[in-house]
C-alpha cells in the first residue's frame, strides 16, 4: 500500500528523479517534458493524491487555450510569454481552488508548487508541438512514478 503522506526526503528524491529523467529526455530528444521539475512533481502528486494530478492536467489545458486566445491580441514572446502563461495558470488554479475549497478542503493543503506546474507545462505546449510535450511529459512522469512507487513498495524510501 502506498502512503498518502511522504517525508520531505522522499519528496526531494522524487523531484530529483524527475530532474534526472527530464534531463535525459531533453538531451536525447531535444524535447522539454513540461519543464525540468514538472515530471517529478506530477509523479509525487500521483502517489499522494490523484485528484490533484487530474486537476493539474485540466488547469494546464485551460491555460494553454487561454494563452492562445491572449496571443491573438497581445504580442507575447520570450520572458513576456513565460510570465503571461505562468500568470494565467496561477489565476486559473486560484479560481479553481477558491471554487473547490469548500467541497474538497484537503485538496489544497500544501500544494504551492501546484500553482506553477500547470504554467510550466502550458508554456512548453506553446513553445513546442503540443503532442510532443504531452508525450514527453507523460513518458518522463511515468518513468519517475515507476521508480518512486517501486522504492516505496520495497520499503527503500521513508514514509510519514
Automatic annotation (TrEMBL):
Keywords: Membrane, Transmembrane, Transmembrane helix. One of its GO terms (cellular component) is membrane. Signal peptide: none annotated. The keyword Lipid biosynthesis does not apply. The keyword Manganese does not apply. One of its GO terms (biological process) is capsule polysaccharide biosynthetic process. The chain crosses the membrane at residues 12-29, 41-65, 77-100, 106-126, 133-157. This is Capsule biosynthesis protein capC.
